[in-house]
Queue: 3 jobs
Job 1
Amino acid sequence: MIVHSGAATGAATRARQQLRVDTPATRRRLARLGRYVDTNLLRGNTFVCRGLCQCKGSIALGDDYREGVMSHVGKRFDLFLGDRPLRIVVVGQESGLPKGPRAREYSRKVSLESRHRQVTQTTGLERRYYADIDHPARNPHMRGTTSALRVLLGLGLCTDFDEEFVHPVNGRPFHLFEAFALVNRLLCSAGPMGTSQGRPTRQMLNNCADHFAATLDILEPNIVILQGAKVAQSTREMFTVTRTHTDHLPEADRQGRRLLLCTFSHPSARGALRWGDSPNSPYMTQVVTPTLQRAIRRL
């Protein structure tokens, strides 16, 4: 566990005390997103995306195609930090092939409800930052995501599970995975059989662009974390950059709404770009943390 300085602990406490939740707003967003999914993507156990045949036909010979993993949206997505809205979206490229006893449930045709259960229950509550005698570890992707959320929510950087809970001023405590949305650029994935390696095609990226844009417009985030260079490249046309605060923090416009883009390597990247193994990693302390702190100040 990381030991905090008094100043850092005080700042985290102040941020935590100011957080307020708007659960009715989140329920309305989820209902709207559910209608979009039911009409355009996943209706029951039927994947109804009009681009399915094109995308599936474009993948490399011998690759596996896993269709329809919906987004995770936490039940406390709509937050306020003081009087400022705080809506956090983390963007990855695609969902990898899950492991463990629930792999089949979460590998394809994954509903909004199942995806929420996977992120909050299986990854959030049943796992820990590092494995202990009773719990397996989160993967580097979700460890990095945990650390990023801790910074944004004022919880302080450490690996203690008991410190992963947000204490809003107007409700009961909740786990930090309820406070964000995880939206992949691609709702389907393609890659070698039995692996988590993603090998998407241009057709997949083109066909999924409208679904990704629609999801952003329903969620209306004002902080967006882009995880990896490929994600930054494939989402470039979704945002109009209006100002650059740092190399990792452009300010952008999306459909007339101002937002802050936090552009990082993927938490599981190799070498010096890796930040999903420890909250003390150089990339986490020198790039991710100061960028997210600047973003919060500029809300």
Note: The first strand starts at residue 19 and ends at 21.
Job 2
Amino acid sequence: GSRAFGQIDVANVGSRALLPARIELPVGRGRAEFFLPRLGAGAVHEEIFTIPTTNRAVIPVGPISSVRSDPLGMARRELVWTDVQELFVHPRTVSLGAHTAGVMRDLEGQTLKTVTDNDMSFHALREYVPGDDRRSIHWKTTARTGRLMVRQYEETRRSHLVVALSTHPGDYAEEAEFELAISAAGSLALQAIREEKQVTVITPGGVIPGISGQRLLDELSTIELDPLGTDLSELTRSAANEVPGASSVALIAGSVVTPTAWRGSANHIPLGALGFAVCCAPEQEVSRRSLGDLVLVGLPTLADLPRMMRRVGA
């Protein structure tokens, strides 16, 4: 939404004056032109330009070239000076603040029923067997019983948010719904990254790298609707196979998805995980309903997302 600024510096590194020329800069499908005046030896000319970023996109900028031609345009000499650079126009996102506490919960993980020899939640003591880690020996009990005793723990699961974003055209009534879905997915994933939670964003095209917020938004800038992509149910199945230990799963699609389809997709959410769905529908009102174990919220605008996340965790 904000304008991107660029700067071109042309320096005459020679010992003679540089004749006037025209500087050409391709930007996306357009082309910008700047007049380069006569430059003396060692002189520098600076041009500042802006690029509108009203739409999410990846805009190629460059290469920059200098052009000299005769007044009639019969002869032309062009020199290319730079490579093409890519400008990533990120989707709009909002900060959710503390509103995801009910969704991306459990700072120290959720306790499971699986017993392990190395974790955080103490469970019980048992007699030592060959191969046990000696660091787990409980010496006070060992001294009291006269037998080596080791600690056992209940395995814990770290909070891991999975965001399943549909890119199938049949799930959206219009392009605005798809853009809202991308912004919602980006906002949820960024909040998890800020809170140092694990997050996986998956589309029918595969898993989007979420190493950093910058990398995540760069990847979201490139996503397009894919007519050959799988439906929401199959996408949820893929997400469950990719992260079987997820603690929260967010399904994001448009208004065309029916309650039956939402409910069918929820059947693939891993057991024990909190499942919620975000129906991106700019023409509808804010809503919340339960479809079995799945919480379905209607999202008309991105600004409503923090308030809706409070209702998901309620």
Note: Residues 104-122 have pLDDT under 50 and may be disordered.
Job 3
Amino acid sequence: MIINVKNGEVLAATSLPDFDPNSANTNPNASNMFNRVTLGVYELGSTFKIFTTAALLEQKHPLFSQKFDATHPIVEGGHTIHDYHAENKFLTLPEVFMVSSNIGTARMAQEIGTNGLKSMFDELGLLKKPDFEIEEVGSPIIPKPWREINTLTASYGHGIAVSPLQLMGAVSDIVNGGYKIYPKLVMNADKAKATNSNERIISTETSLKMRQLLRLVVSEGTARKANISGYYVGGKTGTAEKNINGKYTSDKNIAIFVGAFPIDNPMYAVMVLVDEPHPNKSSYGYATAGWVAAPAVGRIVTSMGSLLGMQPHTDTADIAEPLKQFISDVKGEH
């Protein structure tokens, strides 16, 4: 999916496997007919750390130097929260985001509180069915009742499911300067929301800090394979175990990467989601988003830049550079 983050125009969307619309009734297959972009809802894992981190920055105004205890897993309500690649140390705010620490993000959620986190999710349109021009729109699945453990797990995209459409709308709100957009398929549709919304979700300052963090993920963190030459891309990886019949399965994952570019003043967001990717030799046995989805977004951005005649970044400073003083020797997922 590709969206204009300034006005919400959905410029491209593909759901595979698909079908021939000229012969839709020939050998219909439920999987082929299902619209995963707008109707499907998924636990989108660490991409939700974008919204949790934005909530912390907007509501608590921490310094980038603030540290979060990721020395050991968090045990809450019979659940254990751990990291894919445990750093076993205190992490600065940029480090938590860059290495995609579940523990660090859950610590952020504790600081934000349930009301603060839910308020941000709600303002971003993640807790209700979105208004869209087609009927194939899924409703989010949210914890009911919402307990303290749900606040911690939802902070990193576990136990809450939304559509890719909702994710892209929320990411646009974060990176475009902090203004609410309403995704739409039809230009100037009678029922479409205003193109230029005055509804502010986060401050200009918070939006800038989030763009810096998103750029850091691509330049130094889990999405380095989206770090293409010519354009500064920022984004976030997410790898989530699938919930099948009420149980999470370690061998069936969702791998997703959502990126925005040019990240210093984004115009577009690009998302690739792969359902149940299979590791292979070229991915060194990994099936995580950094190996599966991030490279695909990088290739798409390269093609878009050429097609749109966008001038490459040649002498523009990398907005993530000031954050490097807050990172040390950390691993993170790939």
Note: The longest helix spans residues 204-220.
